[in-house]
């Protein structure tokens, strides 16, 4: 029988946005961005209260279907615990349905909140590997989840097992300090599930070889040779296929690359992320972005998920 957490425990969590794929690294490469959701959780005698402000307010469910709550429930199950009641408060800064990992951040926040609560008891907290595994099970791939857990850049992979759930894992990748990140975030939203349906079930040997070479080169470019980023971020497996559904993103992505800037769709889009060795993007590029409805600004690399015990984010 599961143990029960004491009433009156409290924790706060900070979790970063993330960009997945980074061009050729489909479902494998990820990068945390310095934009954070803040979540606080308290244990109570009974019931569930969910409050949301910022991104998603008035749109996401305030029930057990909320992804943070689902993450908490799954984390408690993995820890062999339950909670009689919960108050969950979310202060969201990560835009939803833009390709910035808001879903992964919500699940990771819920799992990390379990660690913040469990740390105040004699039970064992979840390890980093467990956080990545459990969060990736929600996503079906580990790139966003691993970046949200570990922070920085990550290389992730999936190990399929016959008759068992896949194993998900990731390792950090040192990001070259000379690389500047410029997310371009539109007002328009997009569904990852819908854009994933645009991808073909099969690809040619030639396209597979192309993306394998670029993904391998991208690891080198991100860590040691940023001068290779433009070539290393080329992709033929998913960005061209999504272009028709996201014409403004495809057009701005092409414009950035014509200016010699290594730009990719962020996840499934519609956000775009540019990598540059320069501290500023050209004025013309910024103007074109604004004209096309993109908010473009430099952003720091995101940190690993953090939790505090006995501390609640003020409401």
UniProtKB/TrEMBL annotation:
This protein's record includes keyword NADP: no
Catalytic activity, EC: 2.7.1.39
Keyword Iron: no
Catalyses which reaction(s): L-homoserine + ATP = O-phospho-L-homoserine + ADP + H(+)
Enzyme kind, highest EC tier: transferase
Keyword terms of this UniProt record: Amino-acid biosynthesis, ATP-binding, Cytoplasm, Kinase, Nucleotide-binding, Threonine biosynthesis, Transferase
Residues bound to ATP: 95-105
Pathway the protein acts in: Amino-acid biosynthesis; L-threonine biosynthesis; L-threonine from L-aspartate: step 4/5
Regions that span the bilayer: none
GO MF annotations in UniProt: homoserine kinase activity
Domain (GHMP kinase C-terminal): residue spans on this chain: 235-281
Source organism, top-level taxon: Bacteria
Predominant subcellular localization, coarse grouping: cytoplasm
InterPro entries from the UniProt entry: GHMP_kinase_C_dom, GHMP_kinase_C_sf, GHMP_kinase_N_dom, Homoserine_kinase, Ribosomal_Su5_D2-typ_SF, Ribsml_uS5_D2-typ_fold_subgr
Positions of the GHMP kinase N-terminal domain: 68-152
Family: Belongs to the GHMP kinase family. Homoserine kinase subfamily.
Task performed by this protein: Catalyzes the ATP-dependent phosphorylation of L-homoserine to L-homoserine phosphate.
Name the UniProt record assigns to this protein: Homoserine kinase
Gene designation: thrB
């Amino acid at each position: 029988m599961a143990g029960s957490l004491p009433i009156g425990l409290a924790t706060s969590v900070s979790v970063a946005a993330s960009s997945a794929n980074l061009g050729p690294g489909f479902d494998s490469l990820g990068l945390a961005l310095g934009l954070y959701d803040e979540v606080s959780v308290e244990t109570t005698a009974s019931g569930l209260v969910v409050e949301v402000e910022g991104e998603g307010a008035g749109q996401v469910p305030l029930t057990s279907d909320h992804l943070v709550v689902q993450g908490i429930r799954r984390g408690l199950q993995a820890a062999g615990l339950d909670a009689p009641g919960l108050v969950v408060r979310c202060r969201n800064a990560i835009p939803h349905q833009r390709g910035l990992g808001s879903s992964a951040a919500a699940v990771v926040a819920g799992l990390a909140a379990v660690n913040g609560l469990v740390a105040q008891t004699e039970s064992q907290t979840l390890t980093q590997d467990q956080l990545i595994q459990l969060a990736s099970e929600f996503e079906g791939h580990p790139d966003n989840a691993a970046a949200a857990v570990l922070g920085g850049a990550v290389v992730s992979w999936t190990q399929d097992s016959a008759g068992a759930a896949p194993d998900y894992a990731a390792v950090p990748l040192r990001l070259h300090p000379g690389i500047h990140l410029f997310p371009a975030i539109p007002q328009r939203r997009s569904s990852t599930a819908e854009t994933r349906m645009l991808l073909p079930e099969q690809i040619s040997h030639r396209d597979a070889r192309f993306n394998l070479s670029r993904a391998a080169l991208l690891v080198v470019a991100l860590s040691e040779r940023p001068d290779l980023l433009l070539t290393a971020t080329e992709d033929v497996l998913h960005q061209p296929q999504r272009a028709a559904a996201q014409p403004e993103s495809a057009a701005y992505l092409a414009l950035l690359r014509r200016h010699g800037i290594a730009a990719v769709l962020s996840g499934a889009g519609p956000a775009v992320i540019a990598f540059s060795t320069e501290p500023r993007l050209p004025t013309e590029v910024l103007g074109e972005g604004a004209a096309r409805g993109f908010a473009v600004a430099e952003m720091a690399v995101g940190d690993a998920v953090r939790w505090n015990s006995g501390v609640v984010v003020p409401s």
